[in-house]
Amino acid sequence: MFGTSSRTQEGWKRRGISVCLVTAFALSFAFSGCLGPTALSVTRTRYNEVYRSTNDEQLLLNIVRLRYADSPIFMDLSNITSQFEMSGRGNYSYGLDGSGPGMSNLGLGEWFIRDAPTFSYHPRTGQETAKSLLQPLSAELFSVVNAGANFQQFMLMAVNDINDVPNAARSIAMIPNGPDDNFEFRRGVQLLGDLEQRGAIELTVRKLEDSDDISDPIAMERIGGADLVNAAKENYVFRTVDQDRMTVHKYEKTLVLRVREQDRMSPEMLEVAQIFRLRPGRSTYKIKSEMSGDHPEREPGIVDEEDLAAGDTIFVNMRSMLQIGVFLSKGVCIPDEHVTRGIAPMTADGSGQLYDWTNVTQGLFQVCSSKRRPKKSEIAVKYRGYWFYIAPNDVQSRASMAIYEILFAVQESDVRSGGPLLTLPLGG
């Protein structure tokens, strides 16, 4: 037998130290070089998907709350910060543990990888709520149709009436005082939707001259060339009243419905004109909002014979985001238990039977209910002991939710009030 010399043991120690150092450096470079990109590729899409799903759940929950005449609460996720950390520790026993001459123990080592996300929640309160929920939409938001939104869905959701043809006006009340329908309105927007789909009509913005005078008559001798030039720069124009006087008119960017020439007298367009009291055969119809100040002297709900005689303007009574939410809530199927116990507000028809409000949102938006959590659903939330959900194959309801979210984003105030921030650091 041969003993192990001290020189040989020293060599093993040096070799062990070298191997340990090389391994440590290799692991350090490997982890530091791939941790950042790997963490980004793994977490970014997951945060994106969770953000989308939780946002959908919040909207659906508030729609269900409105059906029960409960207050909606919105909590914005204003910031997501995720911090990744890597650390390690270890010890080296020189490759020898005393049990023999060979290297039997390289030591112990540990690596730690930590993900520490921080979420900041911002509750909508005060002026924010008033602006984003209570203010009627502007007619300019018809532009979302050109951006890809379905024309018929947008009209059914966002418009309360067109030229005093109502879209189930009572449906925007949390507790309606009687039943209502939107058969005539729905037929009109269905025809417009069909025309839009085949390219017969389009929404566009044009610079049109307002027919109303915005000044008293001015003597012609008082108007010089500089006045005409300056007026044109500010989108004004002088028009003659008689041989000696002129008045000022204004050019405005106006949203219009343009009709393709070959479709102006089509059966569909003629029926649209009849339903919404328009003059048939026109190439363009101006679109103005009753509630936004576009036509302040017009009283909503009262037919203006002068406007109807002109037949060239589509006056739309736009809803607010809260009213849209209440309207969509009429598509929530209430469990029988909540109907019999009177938990959800119900409306009686003329014969004393309960009115089915899902008729006004049929084909647009429907929320199913179940005592147990559905195995398959697009969005599901639990409320008052029941699960409310949108079926995965209900494309129309999903699209309506998408339009609702887009309108919410547009209506949000650019300047937010200094409300409290709830910041939750979550240890990983």
Describe the overall structure.
With 428 residues, this protein is an alpha+beta fold. It has helices at 6-67, 127-134, 143-146, 151-158, 183-197, 225-233, 267-275, 305-310, 321-329, 336-340, 395-411, and strands at 75-91, 108-123, 159-162, 165-166, 201-209, 218-219, 236-240, 245-259, 284-289, 313-318, 368-370, 379-383, 386-390, 422-425. Strands 3, 4, 5, 6, 7, 8, 9 and 10 form an 8-stranded mixed beta sheet that branches. Helix 1 packs across helix 9 and helix 5 runs antiparallel to helix 7 (267-275). Mean pLDDT is 78; it is low at 292-303 and 414-428.
Q: What's this, in brief?
A:
By secondary structure, the protein is α+β, with helices and mostly antiparallel strands.
Hey, roughly how much beta strand do the residues contain? 15-25%
The count of DSSP E runs of length 2 or more, i.e. the number of strands, is 14
Biggest sheet statistics: 8 strands, mixed
- Shape, please? globular
Enumerate the spans where pLDDT stays under 50 for 5 or more consecutive residues: 292-303, 414-428
Quaternary status of these chains? single chain
Number of helices: 11
